[in-house]
């Protein structure tokens, strides 16, 4: 009774009740306003209308507002691209790259390194000049950076985001995107130069079939015939010359979207780029293994430019027969290298 007779208190209670009523009614009013706006903007929206929008059987009033766009509000091709990318390209990459790593580890445990069949002779043959070696290592370095940044863009959020959080993962994604976009064109140009430089060594020959039949000599004691490039090296070359150039071309399409490419073209370029790059990354792991710890003496050719006679006879016997008279004692090469080093040091001294 007393509270009811208190005029100021009763006014305060009424104000609170009105405020609560307004707060509770706001969502409903907003929903009603949204529905009225939609009904005014697109009159008569129904399931049939949306089916027409999806299929493209509507007039320009149902198109999106992108400049010169001919796409519908519901882009069916985008959904198809998403399904292909998530259900095929991404799983393929995990299977290809992960399967190759597992296969290499298993092969190394069971078979081990392929050692030379005889002791080294100490006589060296020039295999790769400085220009080719520099070009090879530049392309190889760019390939590794692009592979790692591409893998991070595709799978990084499933690993690094949960491990390090959004801030670190966001910085990694940003760095990967910049590296991929800016180094990709440089890789493409240098890859074409490298392929053109070594093309003469990679034309298929009949004895390459026998090389594959014997597993390249990695299994067993036999060493199949091979010229300057064996069957495996030629296969890697032609993979780069076909799938590699397809990855480069599709990468240019994605890197420069302001040259009139349609949305469908960009979507297909993305699928080709991702699938091809993942496949090449898997094969590259095998190439790296054989060229380093998998075969004794192989890395020397691409680091020093020279290989031992025994290595040449084991792996490239046909080429060895052509150039064996050009073999140089290792001591002479060491002396020449030391002389060049002294000359460079003298030339660099002031005055």
UniProtKB/TrEMBL annotation:
Entry EC number(s): 1.17.1.9
Source superkingdom: Bacteria
Signal peptide segment: 1-30
Name of the molecule in the record: Formate dehydrogenase subunit gamma
GO molecular function, one term: formate dehydrogenase (NAD+) activity
Membrane topology per record: Multi-pass membrane protein
Region described as Disordered: 330-351
Cofactor: heme
Transmembrane spans: 88-110, 130-152, 182-199, 235-256, 268-290
Protein localization: Cell membrane
Keyword set includes Transcription regulation: no
Record carries keyword Heme: yes
Location of the Cytochrome b561 bacterial/Ni-hydrogenase domain: 127-305
Record keywords: Cell membrane, Electron transport, Heme, Iron, Membrane, Metal-binding, Oxidoreductase, Signal, Transmembrane, Transmembrane helix, Transport
Organism whose genome encodes this protein: Halomonas alkalicola
Sequence similarity: Belongs to the formate dehydrogenase gamma subunit family.
């Amino acid at each position: 009774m007393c509270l009811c007779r208190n005029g100021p208190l009763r006014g305060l209670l009424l104000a609170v009740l009105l405020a609560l009523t307004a707060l509770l009614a706001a969502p409903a009013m907003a929903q009603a306003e949204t529905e009225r706006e939609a009904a005014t903007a697109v009159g008569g929206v129904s399931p049939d209308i949306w089916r027409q929008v999806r299929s493209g059987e509507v007039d320009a009033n149902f198109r999106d507002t992108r400049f010169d766009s001919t796409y519908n509000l519901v882009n069916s091709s985008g959904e198809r691209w998403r399904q292909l990318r998530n259900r095929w390209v991404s799983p393929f990459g995990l299977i290809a790259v992960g399967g190759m790593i597992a296969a290499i580890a298993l092969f190394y445990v069971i078979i081990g390194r392929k050692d030379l069949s005889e002791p080294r002779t100490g006589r060296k043959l020039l295999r790769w000049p400085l220009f080719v070696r520099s070009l090879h290592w530049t392309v190889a370095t760019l390939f590794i950076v692009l592979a790692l940044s591409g893998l991070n863009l595709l799978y990084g959020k499933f690993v690094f985001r949960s491990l390090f959080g959004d801030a670190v993962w966001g910085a990694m994604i940003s760095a990967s995107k910049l590296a991929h976009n800016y180094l990709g064109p440089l890789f493409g140009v240098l890859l074409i130069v490298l392929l053109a430089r070594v093309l003469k060594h990679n034309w298929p020959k009949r004895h390459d079939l026998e090389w594959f039949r014997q597993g390249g000599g990695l299994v067993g004691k036999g060493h199949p015939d091979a010229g300057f490039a064996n069957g495996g090296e030629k296969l890697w070359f032609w993979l780069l010359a076909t799938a590699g150039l397809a990855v480069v071309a599709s990468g240019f399409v994605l890197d420069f979207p302001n040259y009139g490419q349609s949305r469908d073209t960009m979507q297909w370029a993305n699928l080709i780029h991702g699938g091809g790059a993942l496949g090449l990354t898997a094969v590259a792991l095998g190439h790296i293994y054989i060229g380093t710890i998998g075969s004794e003496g192989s890395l020397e050719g691409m680091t020093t430019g020279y290989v031992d006679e025994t290595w040449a006879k084991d792996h490239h016997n046909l080429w060895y027969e052509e150039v064996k008279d050009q073999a140089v004692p290792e001591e002479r090469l060491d002396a020449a290298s030391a002389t060049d080093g002294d000359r460079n040091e003298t030339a660099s001294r002031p005055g």
